[in-house]
Amino acid sequence: MKEIRIGLVGAGWMGKAHSSAMLDEQMLFGPDFGVPVFEMVADANEESAKIAQHKIGFKRMTTDWHTLVSDPDIDLVDIATPNAFHYEVAKAALENGKNVYCEKPLSISEAESKELAALAAKKNVINYVGFNNTMNPANAYVRDLVQSGKLGKIMRFVGRYDQDQLLDENLPITWRHINKLAGCGALGDLGSHLLSVSQFIMGDISAVNAMKETIFPKRPKGRDSKEMADVENEDIISLMTRYANGAIGTISASRVATGRKNYLAYEIQGTKGSVVYDLETMGEVQVYFQSDDEADRGFRRVFLNPKHKGYSAFQPAGGISIAYNDMKILEAHELFSALTQGTPYACNFEFGYKIDRTIAAILKSADNGVWTPVE
Amino acid sequence: MKEIRIGLVGAGWMGKAHSSAMLDEQMLFGPDFGVPVFEMVADANEESAKIAQHKIGFKRMTTDWHTLVSDPDIDLVDIATPNAFHYEVAKAALENGKNVYCEKPLSISEAESKELAALAAKKNVINYVGFNNTMNPANAYVRDLVQSGKLGKIMRFVGRYDQDQLLDENLPITWRHINKLAGCGALGDLGSHLLSVSQFIMGDISAVNAMKETIFPKRPKGRDSKEMADVENEDIISLMTRYANGAIGTISASRVATGRKNYLAYEIQGTKGSVVYDLETMGEVQVYFQSDDEADRGFRRVFLNPKHKGYSAFQPAGGISIAYNDMKILEAHELFSALTQGTPYACNFEFGYKIDRTIAAILKSADNGVWTPVE
Amino acid sequence: MKEIRIGLVGAGWMGKAHSSAMLDEQMLFGPDFGVPVFEMVADANEESAKIAQHKIGFKRMTTDWHTLVSDPDIDLVDIATPNAFHYEVAKAALENGKNVYCEKPLSISEAESKELAALAAKKNVINYVGFNNTMNPANAYVRDLVQSGKLGKIMRFVGRYDQDQLLDENLPITWRHINKLAGCGALGDLGSHLLSVSQFIMGDISAVNAMKETIFPKRPKGRDSKEMADVENEDIISLMTRYANGAIGTISASRVATGRKNYLAYEIQGTKGSVVYDLETMGEVQVYFQSDDEADRGFRRVFLNPKHKGYSAFQPAGGISIAYNDMKILEAHELFSALTQGTPYACNFEFGYKIDRTIAAILKSADNGVWTPVE
Amino acid sequence: MKEIRIGLVGAGWMGKAHSSAMLDEQMLFGPDFGVPVFEMVADANEESAKIAQHKIGFKRMTTDWHTLVSDPDIDLVDIATPNAFHYEVAKAALENGKNVYCEKPLSISEAESKELAALAAKKNVINYVGFNNTMNPANAYVRDLVQSGKLGKIMRFVGRYDQDQLLDENLPITWRHINKLAGCGALGDLGSHLLSVSQFIMGDISAVNAMKETIFPKRPKGRDSKEMADVENEDIISLMTRYANGAIGTISASRVATGRKNYLAYEIQGTKGSVVYDLETMGEVQVYFQSDDEADRGFRRVFLNPKHKGYSAFQPAGGISIAYNDMKILEAHELFSALTQGTPYACNFEFGYKIDRTIAAILKSADNGVWTPVE
Q1: Alpha-carbon distance B170 to B216, whole Å?
Q2: pTM score, two decimals?
Q3: pLDDT digits (tens, 9 = 90+) for B43-62
Q4: Of B203, C373, D34, D41, which is least surrounded by CB within 10 A?
Q5: C-beta atoms of A27 and D13 within 8 A
Q6: Residue A293 host element (H or E)
Q7: Which residues in chain A are closer than 8 Å to B299, comparing Cβ atoms?
Q8: What's the rounded Cα separation, in Å, for the pair A322 and D321?
Q9: pLDDT at C68 over 90
Q10: DSSP state at residue C275
Q11: Which residues contact A69 (CB under 8 A, 6 or more apart)?
Q12: CB contact under 8 A, C274 and A254
């Protein structure tokens, strides 16, 4: 049994989610994969740091993350700051030889992510990015269907991630609308999740042809403000894709998609079968096999069950709901397994860099209106 | 090629539907199964009779159906009158040795239906009741699944037929609410369709235990009337069943089922598989096979296709909508085939009597609150 | 009452479908909108022409369509030939001053369609293209939602038309794969239907950026042949769109879309509401209104009912299935109304030309990989 | 802030689930509602007790629950034993003046539950039964719709809880099949959950008319055994109901329902609206309002969101999956709130007794085949 001493940077909702997932990991998998010790929490806001310390039970707190990343009693730096700070915290942590767990995205630019991926490889530490959707048992199942050849040659990936959280034009401007804080708009916030799923299941995208649209180009500066500020990035992104495996596809994302709440949905068509998935009904995957008798052939509504990787951690029988938090628990488990047992993991900084490289190509294509290679 | 000279009794919506289906049968199947000749239409309302004659192209019309049923130039008496008249028209037609096509129900009482079934058998003519749902390719497919043993031993049938057409308490009283005209309420109007499907797929019900409820016991005497009249029969019927094949089940029907439009829906559970069907999405059947691999197992959403009996008359490929009228066309085709080629058919007067016998047992059970055998 | 003397060119499945729809129109709407008289049928295959004459009841037949289009006793030339012949038959019919009813597409090239549209306008005759999906009560309802402003400013149209009828790589080559017969592939066969719906509801597309893919570039020359022939056109088309109304979108179509049968599906997102529709469940439209209370807000599953244009011709109450044929009946009714009463109609040759113009721009864009204006 | 010293009886899956939920409650709601202290765990199996002590962090363990229930340092006895032991442990705990949290069912007989409810009332301690489905935000939302009158007068409740976990006839006999351990079969295991939901939303059932069926009357004595043992209780239960509020209904449950995994599904029809819910798609409720315009009226697919009680503990925006565990967390929160702040709660021992009283009436009715009053 090995203790994993956690240093959490960022005491907001996501920091709590990470810590909660680590505790649940412990309850579900036991101490064999490491025991989390909540060593220190850092947040620039002292009040927030103290509340987190109190609620989660961190031994120490600080308002200066530099203290944390260089502390000798920290094994794992857990980064749950706003996106724009991921780069500098991760860089400092790596330079101190720490293992790093960084919430997605890795950074807000291709260049920063490239630097971090290279540095992590050089330092030879565990470097993990929290693209939680890759932990979803549904996506793991689909990946198996695709990579085993059960669906034949893959022809097409059609995916969308739509939400309507920013539909109300009276919602004030936030960091999400400012590029130096967010990098980009719907593409980075939502599209990146879909890209991570696409990458996980389909492998590399080789070229993209994209367009973007800002539906609400100005938003109020504050709740009751009549002054308006510029929205700097896209509400909607759309693109056509070519994959290294020969497939083609379309991907889009909107943060103003009226009626859609958490519609990370995709369809994969192969010559022998197809799958359809929608995160709004997280616990089921539609699967079609061309080899079924024609009279009885149709998309099968498969509820997640213990045959699908990760599910049995939560329930002994199929068809019982699992949730967002459960993906984070599986993420914590994969991270802990890597830390204590050296097991491999997909979502390393190289993976995060690949997503950010793809995002850069998409933005470039959207500016130029032409096909743009990734890399 | 043989002409089938039609005598239609009842010139309303259903009479038009029958005639239209016969014409379409002709277009789809051609003259080999008989050519309908619209010989005579009868309706007590002269205006209605004349309009039907004109629109459908009947050679002759009459306001007295006795004339029609005894006319030597009629081969087939087609009964589309209000339900309460089915008995006397069918009886007279049979006594004149005519082939008879009677819209469902066969009559409004067990006794009348018994008499008609016996008379039809004695006269040895074609005697057909229009339980159109048995013509639905979906139900034919399910019947095959059940009777072939593909679903294993059948354990349970759970069915409902819900509509909300009579939900509005201000809708005036109609013949449907008066027992001497309708026989009973939701059970006869809606439940009988479900019983026909159940009978067709599962075979005989051996015993029932039923309850009934009238939600709106009084309705206005007319559109603008403030006078109220008694509703004599049930808005909702519910029952538990035992089948001759050993299965059990529940059946219910409501004509005040808020939100339900044409919800003739059922689920059949066998030891090796299950099916779920809902007439509101007429073109698809959900099928589950226990023998599928557990990882990939789920209800298959099977769209009707040319492998299912009757479908290929309408479309060359699967997944294209068919409709209510198409069931009536298949009904006309089965009737014409019986008339010209002697092919067998399920929905004869004996079948209609069986449904009415079951209805009688259900009503008796609902009055007494105990298990009641059918027959 | 006015007779409409029909001259049908092409005695195959579609010719029968047109004739059947005209007969049903008569049953449903009566003679006030004109009475079809089946005057003459033309088919190069004498056997086919004779069978159609016999089954449908045409007075005369010919193997030379030139005879038909110049016959003085023909009021309406009904073109149901293979696509490649639409142009010359329609042109000759127009030159003879005939009213013309042409199955979609209008022709197989932008240039031909342009010429036909101009000629039809000059001749001032009824000129109708059978884009039946515009007759679907569901699409009429969605059009009302969009054009009334109930959905607010329209942001996005996402549409797909997927089928898997050509998935089997052993299916031999047909006219659909040869450009001089088909014009193009999935775009012309399937995509054109979706474009007609998009045009009908959203108005003009102003620019496109497309890609195309041929999954099976060679197919056997015949059923048992080992010789292979080149497939000349696309199995899959994908495009991004900009609409004249300011919206953006994506459209795609595949004829090798494993598991999809008749998936003409689209989503329209406006600032006040959204709709989702899928032709595989033809009788229901999903509608979302942002103005509903948040606690009770969600996509409404609206079954077609008498409030939706066209539906009440078929059923007196909502939720009962209508079908492909019913769209053709409504098409016949709109055509007859135009012929006898001068009522306006949307799907004229100008409409057909607009679709073909859009197709031309899409193909050009797919060749060049850049945004291409329509017109 | 107040410590809640937990004594857990039963160290299996459910004991872990309770403890995990308490920890998560802490992370989500913070110490204001009490801080759980894991004081002691009891399990007859020493090994199990030790593992639980280690993993969950209990200070002490014992193999004799009598020690635990009388320990002065225990505030709350948490009962997660097999069902048959609930009664004696709960009784002893109450007699020692402890607050008691008992997993459902309260006991396995009406008489035992009656005694426990009376004793709990007399002792004036917190007495909580873990009917977790009442904590589901979906059911809380439906309860509001029903009790606020938004759905009008309630006419009907149609519910089913189907699973197929015991479908395989080769699965050996377990405690679930033996009445002295389980009380009854599918009714107690599954039906009781549905009864708790029905009770929570609809209030009291006044009378029932039930039937039961055992599909597999014998099962192997063990995994590899050829000896067979008698299954003493029902695989399927079905009943008709009358509610104190005037509504009627049907309820059924099966543990051999091929294809159904966690199908706790119900429909409630009121004169002004209806709801449909299915636990397999836990995060959405279908709601229908008769007051919507007819053209736009349909069941609304409402995703759970922060407007629904309990949801906002987990997610800041709607449409994100919550799960089984989350209901247990809300249960822990209601329990802790009751313990530390005296807030009211529905699922007390009286509630548990009411469910067991209803079960007793159902079993009696099934034996006699007649309507049986509840109480």
Answers
A1: 10
A2: 0.97
A3: 999 999 999 998 888 999 99
A4: C373
A5: no
A6: none
A7: 300-301
A8: 7
A9: yes
A10: E
A11: A7, A9, A77, A89, A92, A93, A96, A98
A12: no
A30 in the Ramachandran plot: left (φ > 0), alpha (ψ -120 to 50) or beta?
left
Q: Which two tokens stand for residue C103?
A: 């199955």
The helix/strand/coil state of C62 is strand
Bridge partners of C242? Answer: C207, C248
Among D292, D295, D300, whose Cβ lies nearest the Cβ of C299? D300
Distance in angstroms (rounded) separating the CA atoms of residues A148 and C223: 31
Which of C9, C184, C164, C196 lies closest to C86 in space, CA to CA? C9
Residues of A in contact with B305 (CB under 8 A): 294-295
CA distance to A264, A269, A270, A271, A272, per residue, from A154 (Å): 20, 6, 4, 6, 9
Q: What is the widest separation between alpha-carbon atoms in chain A?
A: 67
Q: Where are the alpha helices (DSSP H) in C82-178?
A: 86-95, 110-123, 137-147
**Closest C-chain CA to D311:** C295
Amino acid in position B200: F
Yes or no, beta carbons of A158 and C160 under 8 Å apart: yes
The tokens for B66 are: 């006795």
CB contact under 8 A, A298 and B298: no
Q: Where do the domains of chain B lie, and which CATH numbers do they carry?
A: 3-133 (3.40.50.720), 136-318+349-373 (3.30.360.10)
The pLDDT profile of chain A, 375 residues, written as one tens digit per residue, is 699 999 999 999 999 999 999 999 988 898 889 999 999 999 999 999 999 998 888 999 999 999 999 999 999 999 999 999 999 999 999 999 999 999 999 999 999 999 999 999 999 999 999 999 999 999 999 999 999 999 999 999 999 999 999 999 999 999 999 999 999 999 999 999 999 999 999 999 999 999 999 999 999 999 889 999 999 999 999 999 999 999 999 999 999 999 999 999 999 999 999 999 999 999 999 999 999 999 999 999 999 999 999 999 999 999 999 999 999 999 999 999 999 999 999 999 999 999 999 999 999 999 999 999 998
Q: Smallest Cβ distance to A27: which of D55, D262, D321?
A: D55
HSE-CB of A236 using CA atoms within 13 angstroms: 23
Helix residue ranges, H only, chain B: 13-29, 46-52, 65-69, 86-95, 110-123, 137-147, 179-182, 186, 192-202, 324-341, 349-368
Interchain CB distance below 8 Å, B298 and A297: no
Of C286, C294, C296, the CB nearest to D287: C296
Q: How far apart are CA B337 and CA B334, in angstroms?
A: 5
Q: Which residues of C touch A214 (CB under 8 A)?
A: none
Strands (E), chain A: 3-9, 35-42, 60-62, 76-79, 99-103, 127-130, 154-162, 205-213, 218-220, 228-230, 236-243, 248-254, 263-270, 273-278, 284-289, 299-303, 372-373
What is the rounded (10 degree) CA torsion for A84, A88, A94, A97? -130
- Identify the CA nearest to C320 among candidates B161, D145, D285, A146: B161
ipTM over 0.90: yes
